[in-house]
Specification:
There is one protein chain. By secondary structure, this protein is α+β, with helices and mostly antiparallel strands. The protein folds into two domains: 57-175, Uridine Diphospho-n-acetylenolpyruvylglucosamine Reductase, domain 3 (2-Layer Sandwich), CATH 3.30.465; 181-402, Alpha-Beta Plaits. It has 13 helices and 21 strands. It has an eight-stranded antiparallel β-sheet with strand order 16-12-14-13-19-20-18-21. β1 (2-4) and β2 (11-13) form a beta hairpin. The chain starts with a strand and ends with a helix.
Length: 432
């Protein structure tokens, strides 16, 4: 069967390795050639792609919940959307959530995902109390910050390369309503954008849409969205109905003119410098989930998402250079997201560090990879790194320079025999 990540690049011929329960999974792993776990297919590049893959979505049961502490224990195939539908009406919400609720708990841990509140609450792995991991020989280990600590720190952010996450216990946060108080700050350039992030850093959620094709005095102009749960309101939650992109858009649809026009209109729709409103959970956290198959917008060749992070002291200068390169190339993105991050949690391959990250979607087109290689050099020059969950093409040398604990990760994989079993196209490309 043909298999790809959410970016639909690359596409490979892959065979599923099916299993019924934990015992049969253990037997399959003991006798298996190289494979990689596969959740709900929402990582963008090739981190969950291999000639043999293990579908893990079927393990989707809730196992336990402690209403005193908010500790939820479930199987790794549970979707974040299922957690929200079950627990938000009871007054509980995810402490950390990325921009889609359609990922599995196992995938959230494997990518150590983050959201709009990293500067306050860190990564998903920071909410995890413990996890159950099946190694390549079929044995099972309990992992936490106190037990099998190194394996725990390698699994959170390890992109499925340390074993199969079977179950996990992690903390939800109590909320008083399902309504978000939302503020929008309109900035004229990158300097104003950075100043706004710092001014409103006490808001738990913040994210900026940035016009990556703006030039000159308007370079880095943005709409900074702030949010916090309203203290009063209803807890009722009804998922929004989704619309569907029925087919691939023609390749010419997204071009420098259409993206520039979209960005100008999107920026102009907000007229006030500061505006306040209310939003539901889906509108604030998961706007793209309202469109099924939105990845078809980029055409049949697919797209790559390029996400990097820079240390805080270097972020402003580095982003100026990156945005200048993108604006000059004309290969802009209408999905360009800037976020502020708090300190790293120390997990071996976790992406965040204290600073700012930028995520951009680029359709596959001539000259794109040359542009991205130029951006790679800028990212490294300013001490940054690339996010594995979004990557489909970065080179080994570039990757290694951004992750100083990479050798510890490799040594752990080798010592436990994991490199013989768990491999993806990405891990082979990067020598993980």
């Amino acid at each position: 069967m043909n298999l790809s990540g959410w970016g639909r690049y690359p596409v490979i011929d892959a065979a599923p390795v099916s299993f019924q329960d934990r015992d049969s999974l253990s037997q399959k792993l003991s006798a298996a050639d190289s494979l990689i776990p596969f959740g709900n297919g929402r990582s963008y590049g090739d981190s969950a792609l291999a000639p043999r893959f293990l579908p893990c979505r079927q393990r989707d049961r809730f196992l336990d919940f402690d209403p005193e502490t908010g500790l939820l224990t479930c199987e790794a195939g549970v979707l974040l959307s299922e957690i929200i539908e079950t627990f938000l009406p009871r007054g509980w919400f995810l402490k950390v959530t990325p921009g889609t609720k359609l990922i599995t708990v196992g995938g959230a841990i494997a990518a150590d995902v983050h959201g709009k509140n990293h500067h306050v609450d860190g990564c998903f792995g920071d909410t995890v109390h413990s996890l159950t991991l099946m190694l390549g020989d079929g044995t099972v280990r309990q992992c936490s910050r106190e037990e099998n600590t190194e394996l725990f720190r390698a699994t959170c952010g390890g992109m499925g390369l340390t074993g199969i996450i079977l179950e996990a216990g992690f903390y939800l946060q109590p909320v008083q309503s399902a309504t978000i108080e939302q503020g929008t700050i309109k900035t004229a350039n990158l300097e104003e954008t950075f100043a706004a992030f710092e001014k409103y850093a006490d808001w738990p959620y913040s994210v900026a849409w940035i016009d990556c094709l703006a030039k000159g005095q308007s370079l880095g102009r943005s709409l900074l969205m702030l949010g916090k749960f309203a203290p009063l309101g209803e807890l009722a939650y009804t998922p929004r109905k989704s619309k569907t992109v029925p087919c691939n858009f023609p390749g010419f649809t997204l071009n420098s003119f259409s993206v520039r026009a979209f960005n100008a209109l999107y920026y102009a729709k907000v007229r006030s410098r500061i505006s306040m409103s209310f939003a539901d959970v889906d509108s604030f956290f998961y706007p793209l989930d309202a469109i099924n198959h939105w990845n078809r917008i980029y055409g049949r060749k697919g797209f790559v998402q390029y996400q990097f992070i820079l240390p805080k002291a270097q972020s402003y200068a580095g982003l100026q250079e990156v945005l200048g390169q993108i604006a000059t190339s004309g290969m802009g993105s209408f999905l360009a997201v800037l976020k502020l991050y708090g300190p790293s949690n120390g997990n071996l391959l976790s992406f965040p560090m204290e600073g700012y990250s930028l995520a951009l979607d680029f359709k596959i087109q001539p000259g794109l990879f040359t542009l991205l290689e130029r951006l790679d050099r800028i990212v490294l020059q300013y001490g940054g790194r690339i996010y594995l969950a979004k990557d489909a093409r970065v080179g080994r040398e570039t990757f290694e320079q951004g992750y100083p604990q990479i050798e510890r990760f490799r040594q752990l994989r080798s010592s436990l025999g994991l490199s013989n079993i768990f491999n993806s196209l990405q891990s082979q490309r990067l020598g993980l």
